């Protein structure tokens, strides 16, 4: 957590991964983020993984530190309150984050009637308004048909990491800040669309994969765990562990040769093939089938502790495979020793390592991570501070079922 965005106030009406991730990133930089949910929770309030009693650990993780307001968004009065919060006056307000539909009471066209310079960042499926989620966008990119071993043929492999959601969340965060800066300079607000589908397609182009197909006339083949265009793969140690070894840069390659004492053998391969592996990662990739056995044999005769000592001393780029539980049990990087984490007790009743900002601002104080809110925990506080409502007015909202607290 840092205070570089202190004073900025963002109102979030979103669910699932991309929108809440955007709000979380802004909060971790110091913005105040007010999340509005329906009374009883939105569509992501009970998502797995869940703890005893059904509390969503997923919801806790994505909304830690935010202020939670619970309203009846199905009622005219609840909708009006949400609109008023999104368009509240003040130079640091009027920043709205959502993945609600383009049309409806939270449409930009409706909101700007209440605040002309409003900035709306809207996360979508496809740019044409068609519905999409991370996994369906991934299908369209072709990546599930590049993932996994060649023996799978034309069977797709879904990924576990919601990559397009996470990229969209990060894109939405910088889009919010860019639009806010533009408003400061010009006085003009605007709506910014962040479609998951466009993020996925743009990424293919940015990584050269569209040009690759145009040049070759073919889609990229499946490579299993081989790293495309470089030297890298998983290898087994003598004591049954799997490690990932990479050599992308010349320095990483020379470190690997020295650590495994295979320099002479590699030189012999270079002479026989008439190539040099020293500087060109692509050449290592082309001839990986003759290089992999050298590394496989050496790694296969070493136990993990000895390999770790040697590789770390010589600067080899590598990492052992581990489960999350193994990481939490024994990896000091996954502990309170790492300033990224704080031990925090959340509404679920669990106390666990909670990450703050993954960025490091050198010279600025790094604040500990905050706990997640209970649903509706800040309803009264936000209605008072943002809309200037009195306790009596808020009490009547509670009585009519328009607002709820934790």
Report what the structure shows.
The protein is α/β, with parallel strands linked by helices. It folds into two domains: 264 residues, 3-Layer(aba) Sandwich (Rossmann fold); 79 residues, no CATH class. Helix content is 39%, strand content 15%. The chain has 16 helices and twelve strands. It has a seven-stranded mixed beta sheet with strand order 6-5-4-1-2-3-12, with helices on both faces. Strands 7-8-9 form a three-stranded antiparallel beta sheet. Strands 10-11 form a two-stranded antiparallel sheet. Strand 4, helix 4 and strand 5 form a beta-alpha-beta unit. Helix 6 crosses helix 7. The longest helix is centred in the middle third of the chain and has 24 residues. The radius of gyration is 26 Å and the shape is elongated. The two termini are 25 Å apart.
Task: Give the SSE map.
Elements: E1 9-13, H1 18-28, E2 32-38, H2 57-63, E3 67-71, H3 76-86, E4 95-98, H4 108-111, E5 119-124, H5 134-141, H6 163-186, E6 190-195, H7 196-206, H8 209-216, E7 231-236, E8 242-247, H9 250-260, H10 263-273, H11 281-286, H12 288-299, H13 304-314, E9 317-320, H14 324-330, E10 341-345, E11 351-355, H15 379-387, H16 391-399, E12 403-404
């Amino acid at each position: 957590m840092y205070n570089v965005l202190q004073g900025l106030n963002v109102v979030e009406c979103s669910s699932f991964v991309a929108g809440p991730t955007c709000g979380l990133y802004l909060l971790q930089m110091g913005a105040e983020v007010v999340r509005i949910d329906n009374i009883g929770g939105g569509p992501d309030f009970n998502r797995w993984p869940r703890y005893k009693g059904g509390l969503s650990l997923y919801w806790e993780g994505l909304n830690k530190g935010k202020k939670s307001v619970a309203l009846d968004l199905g009622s005219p009065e609840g909708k009006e309150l949400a609109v008023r919060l999104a368009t509240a006056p003040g130079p640091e307000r009027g920043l709205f984050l959502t993945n609600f539909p383009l049309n409806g009471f939270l449409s930009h066209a409706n909101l700007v009637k209440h605040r002309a310079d409003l900035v709306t960042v809207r996360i979508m499926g496809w740019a044409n308004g068609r519905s999409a989620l991370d996994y369906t966008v991934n299908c369209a990119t072709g990546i599930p048909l590049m993932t996994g071993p060649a023996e799978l043929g034309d069977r797709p492999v879904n990924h576990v990491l919601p990559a397009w959601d996470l990229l969209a969340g990060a894109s939405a965060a910088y889009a919010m800040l860019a639009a806010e800066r533009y408003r400061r300079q010009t006085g003009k607000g605007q709506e910014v669309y962040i479609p998951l589908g466009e993020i996925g397609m743009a990424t293919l182009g940015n990584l050269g994969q569209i040009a690759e197909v145009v040049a070759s006339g073919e889609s990229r083949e499946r490579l299993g765990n081989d790293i495309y265009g470089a030297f890298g793969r998983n290898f087994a140690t003598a004591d049954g562990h799997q490690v990932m070894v990479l050599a992308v840069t010349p320095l990483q390659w020379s470190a690997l040769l020295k650590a495994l004492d295979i320099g002479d053998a590699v030189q012999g391969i270079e002479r026989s093939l008439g190539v040099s592996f020293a500087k060109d990662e692509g050449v290592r990739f082309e001839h990986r089938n003759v290089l992999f056995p050298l590394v496989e044999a050496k790694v296969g005769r070493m136990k993990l502790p000895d390999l770790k000592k040697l590789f770390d001393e010589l600067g080899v780029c590598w990492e052992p495979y581990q489960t999350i539980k193994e990481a939490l049990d024994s990896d000091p990087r996954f502990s309170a020793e790492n300033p990224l984490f704080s031990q925090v007790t959340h509404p679920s009743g669990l106390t666990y390592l909670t990450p703050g900002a993954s960025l490091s601002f050198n010279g600025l104080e790094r604040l500990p991570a905050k706990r997640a809110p209970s649903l509706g925990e800040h309803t009264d506080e936000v209605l008072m501070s943002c809309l200037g409502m009195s306790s009596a007015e808020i009490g009547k909202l509670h009585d009519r079922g328009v607002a709820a607290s934790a």
